[in-house]
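note to self — DONT lose this again. spent like an hour looking for the file last time. sequence + predicted structure for the chain T wanted, 301 res
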Amino acid sequence: MAASRPIMTSLNGDNSWLLSFPRPPAEHKESGKAYYHIVFEPWLHGPSSTLSSWLIHLSLPGIPSVLTPSDLEALIQDIEVAAGGRKTTTGSNDQSAIDGILLGFRYNDHVHEPTLKLLHKRVPVIATPDAAAVVKPWCHFDTVTTFTNLAGDFDPASWRSAPSGCLPSWLNLLRFPGHHELNYCLLLVYFFDAEPAVEKLALLHGLKESYAIGHQNTFGAKAGLALHRAAGDPKYWVTSHNSPLLYSGALMHMLYVHDTPRTIDWAMEQEASALSSEQKVKGLIKPNVIDVENGGCLVLV
């Protein structure tokens, strides 16, 4: 069998993903599972409301491709069988094919209670402290571990030893805070066979810009392009949290919450306008922007 590669599967066409990382050969042989499967911020079951649907209400523009835990278990089973893993009975009262749930932010569309309560209680949750504070009072999951932002004096050379909750030793999680809680960087590092080369495979970032009361609160194509350059132009730019969400509720209307769509071509025009003539002559690589459709997958080769 050819060497397996990480797989990203869109669960709702927005910011919910199944992230599947190949297990080391010895672990594959021992467990019978070819991949370690992380469900990232699942929002699959109904809209998202805060305080009341009359105040803050968000809806996805389309029906998620995965609606139930059974759908999710079947998707994982398909990946395992295709990769030569062992076919097992999953989703029973005592087990799940999901290896972990990752929650990187505390807002309700990222920590979606109706969806999360459908998932098996024995699946470990790895969350920021703020997200964990939302989940723990439900008393639904047996294991909720936290990971924190990296300190300002973090030594990049020590990334392998940074705390990462209950992830396996060959998968690490790093979170870098931004100037506002909405703007942060979450980094998953998969490294059991990373010697000697390290590849920057994928950047997940939206293209649209979001505004409230006239102020931009989430950054899209332009800021994403700057991050892409700073990261050394990863192989793929996968659009995420980029769908035209439907906003309603009194508070959302009062704050005039809305999105402005952008494109990578627009961002590159903005980038070029700020460059010197010499920099323009050298030219810049156009990112390989991939829009994974709802229910689609991308193999990171």
